[in-house]
Design brief:
The protein is of the alpha/beta class and 163 residues long.
Amino acid sequence: MEVIVINNQKDFQLDEDTVKNISDFLFKKLEKEESSELNVVFIGAKEIKEINKKYRNIDKETDVLSFSYIDDKKIFGFIDDGKSFKDEYGFFTVGEILICPSVAQENIRTYKKEWSLTKELIFLIIHGLLHVYGYDHEKEDDKLRMEHEQEELLREVEEQFKI
C-alpha cells in the first residue's frame, strides 16, 4: 500500500514528509488491499483550471480534483478491471487527488479559518480521498455523511499528528 506524493508546483513550500505520512495514515484507514496505490499531486492554478475545464466543463480554478479508478472500467481499455490489472501487474492505482496550494491558501483567507496551509491541504486530501472511495455531496444526505466522515478523519489526524 503506497501513497505517491508528487509536487509539480513552485508557488508554495510544502512539508512533503508530513503530507506523505498523513496521506499514508488516511489511505490505510480506507484501503485494505496491500498492493493498492494512490497518487496525491500538487499542481499550479493554471494546470488545475485546465484539468477542471477538460474533465468537468468548469472553466475556473479549484482547490481539489479527484479521479477514482476503482469502478471506472473506461480507464482500462486494454484489460477487464482493477482486479485483472492487479493480477497482471502486481499493483492497482485506486485514484488520484490533484490539489492546488494557491487556491487552498485562498480558501484560508476566504473562510477565515484559523489553520495553516498544511492543515488545509490535509483537509483537501481527506475530501479528495473520500471522493475516490465513492463519497459525494450532491444530495443533502450524502453531503451530511461526507462532512461527518471528513470531520472524523480530520480529528484523528489532528490527534495522531498534532497538526
